[in-house]
Amino acid sequence: MNGLNECFREKIKLEIEENRIEPACNLPLQFVYGNGPTDAKVVMIGEAPGKDEVCFGRPFVGKAGEILNEILLKTGIKREQLYITNVVKYRLVKEGSRQGSYRNRPVTKKEIEIMLPWLKQELDLIKPKLILTLGNVPLRALCFMQNCGILEIGACHGDVFCVNDNMFHIPLYHPASQIYNRSLKEVFDEDFKKVRIFLESQEG
Ligand code: URA
Hints:
Elements: H1 2-18, E1 42-46, H2 51-56, H3 63-75, E2 82-86, E3 93-95, E4 102-104, H4 109-126, E5 130-134, H5 136-145, H6 153-156, E6 161-164, E7 167-172, H7 177-180, H8 184-203
Parallel strand pairs: 1-2, 1-5, 5-7
Antiparallel strand pairs: 3-4, 6-7
């Protein structure tokens, strides 16, 4: 995976510059790559790394990662067996109100499009049995990849979609969403039970 990441990193830097997408804000792109076994049966896809992820160089190690660890523990899914990545592999930042400070910002449609080939290559290499998307951004990315209509997480979370003969996809809410909406915790827990059941059905 190292060669792939290094190759895409340079390509992406150029494309982001050419398309004049904000980060510019004088901060170089801060990359965080996917992490986990490259023969993983399950690939989990988030939106983009945040400040903590940049600091530790791994996806989902901040607050959202804590919530994720908790649910993985509860459902008996081992994090070290998952390959965890993001659609956007650099931190999405804009300048904050104080000089020299930075805040997270939403991803643009153009950025999702630019990042798709990288994600696609990861999936082609790993060939997981199951893809878990966390939130609307990776869900949208998968819809673009499959050339299908755009789905919204509120309408399809916990459903099982067939990607091809050997690959399935279950959209889940982003773990951070329950920080802002407590009622989503229960939904998230229920959806993870469905993931567990799906994985057990594949074991037999
Ligand atoms: N949120 C994401 O979508 N990805 C991370 O890696 C961390 C938080």
